[in-house]
Amino acid sequence: IENPENSHKESVFPPHPESAYLTSLIPTPTQIQKNFLDVGVGSGILSIDAAKKGWKTIGVDINKKALKMASINAKLNDAQCRLRYDDLAKNQEENFFYFCVANLPFEPTPSQKINFLHSNGGEYGDKLITEFIPIIERKMKIDGVVILPSFSLFKNNESRIEKHLKELNNSCFMRGIVRLSRPLELTLLSSRFEDSKNVYNYLTKEGYSHFVIDIGLLKKTNEESSFI
Q1: Among residues 36, 37, 41, 33, which one has the least CA distance to residue 15?
Q2: How far is Cα 152 from Cα 74, in angstroms, rounded to an integer?
Q3: Distance between CA atoms of residues 116 and 119, nearest Å
Q4: Distance CA 219, CA 106 (A)
Q5: What are φ and ψ of residue 24, in 5° steps?
Q6: Bridge partners, residue 177, by sequence
Q7: Which bin fits 4, alpha (ψ -120 to 50), beta or left (φ > 0)?
Q8: What is the DSSP letter of 12?
Q9: Do 92 and 59 meet the contact criterion of CB atoms below 8 Å apart?
Q10: Which of 29, 163, 199, 204 is the most buried (most CB within 10 A)?
Q11: pLDDT tens digit string along 126-175?
Q12: How many CB atoms neighbour CB 108 within 10 A?
């Protein structure tokens, strides 16, 4: 695995098995449901798949190199994708999207460590996810669906993303979790750091020794909703 301390942090995340799995979750749009948002476009695989299925696709990223690669890949695949430089889709139109996949960085990254833009999720791995949820709520149409994949820290039979969704107040999102894995050893999460065996000591001191693969599911409603 490439070490960010010896390469560009703007490197583009290549398609992985998880990327292929996420494409399988993108449905064919109805005549009404047309606008699709891909947040963290990377190589462009999700935007391209959505466009080929018939969605009007917008892909956003803060990595200009990723946007360039996604543009090339879209042309190679004859896919019509609008690609825009944007931080967490803050500048996108409100009440516009029917479906969104946000494959955001979720790798816990100690504050003193260097990590790729595509993987740095802050000290607990969920910094961008928690920032993104109130933003995307304003961007989705009623009944619009958001998919949030995450490798989430786990303790007391609960992941951090699950706990956050349960505690989310004043939200019009119906919220839930699909768990795709058993609890996995924290040391499996990253081998990017030279001292990977000890790099997460600050997490183990807080009781985090495992993570799980969770997908957060959000559906916008007309009124304040809850976790199900």
Answers
A1: 41
A2: 31
A3: 5
A4: 21
A5: -70, -15
A6: 216
A7: alpha
A8: P
A9: no
A10: 199
A11: 999 999 999 999 999 999 999 999 999 999 999 999 999 999 999 999 99
A12: 28
Helices 45-53 and 17-24: crossing angle, nearest 10°?
A: 20
Q: Which residues of 194-212 are buried (b: 16+ CB within 10 A; e: fewer)?
A: eeeeebbeebeeeebebbb
Q: Tell me which residue of 55, 27, 60 sits closest to 44, measured CA to CA.
A: 60
Q: Kindly state the tokens that stand for 151.
A: 């490798």
The model carries a pTM of: 0.94
Token pair recorded at residue 4: 């960010």
- Identity of the residue numbered 93: E
Count CB neighbours of 193 within 10 A. Answer: 18
CA angle 135, 137, 143 (to 5 degrees): 155
Q: How many whole angstroms separate alpha carbon 160 and alpha carbon 122?
A: 13
What pLDDT was estimated at residue 1? 63
Residue 72 dihedral angles phi and psi, to the nearest 5°: -60, -45
The whole-angstrom separation of Cα 59 and Cα 46 is 9
Among 24, 81, 75, smallest CA distance to 56 is for 81
pLDDT tens column, 69-109: 999 999 999 999 999 999 999 999 999 999 999 999 999 99
The structure tokens listed for 130 are: 């928690």
Three-state SS sequence of 65-100: HHHHHHHHHHHHCCCCEEEEECCCCCCCCCCCEEEE
